[in-house]
Write a structure and sequence with these properties.
By secondary structure, the protein is mainly α. 60% of the residues lie in helices and 8% in strands. The chain has a three-stranded antiparallel beta sheet, with no helix packed on it.
Length: 151
């Protein structure tokens, strides 16, 4: 009884070992067939071993994705603020050049001195407003959280 069991186990082991390969067979019409059973004119393929990748904790991946999105959103906000700041600085510079420290050039349409004074006052108000706006934008930029390392 022990011999029968031993021979049965040996037979199963060797049959599994011989049919463990993958075979490629091309028939007369050019049809290609792959099988784990050897047949006439079939060539055994030597395939590389299968790589098994362990599963990844999806919670960890979701956290990394969320951090990356947040980082990208912060970067986008930062770029928008920097763009607004540069536009505001450019416009402020133009207005200050026109203002000329309170002595702007008199325009031809300003024969009336009061019109000239009104324009000077509007320029001064515009400078103050733009400087205030620029300060607010810079403060908002500085208040943004620093970029976290989500990579």
């Amino acid at each position: 009884m022990k011999r029968k069991l031993l021979s049965l186990i040996t037979l199963i082991f060797f049959s599994c070992a011989t049919s463990a390969g993958i075979y490629k067979h091309v028939d007369d019409q050019g049809n290609v067939t792959y099988s784990n059973i050897p047949s006439n004119n079939a060539k055994q393929l030597n395939l590389p071993p299968i790589v098994v990748v362990p599963p990844v904790d999806s919670g960890e991946v979701e956290d990394r994705i969320a951090k990356r999105r947040e980082s990208m959103k912060l970067e986008e906000q930062k770029e928008k603020l920097q763009s607004k700041i540069s536009e505001e600085e450019k416009r402020l510079s133009e207005i200050k050049n026109e203002y000329k420290d309170g002595n702007p050039d008199r325009l031809g349409s300003e024969r009336n001195y009061q019109r000239y004074l009104d324009r000077v006052e509007r320029l001064r108000t515009e400078i103050d407003r733009r400087e205030s706006s620029l300060d607010i934008l810079k403060k908002e930029l500085n208040d943004l959280p620093k970029k976290s390392s989500a990579r």
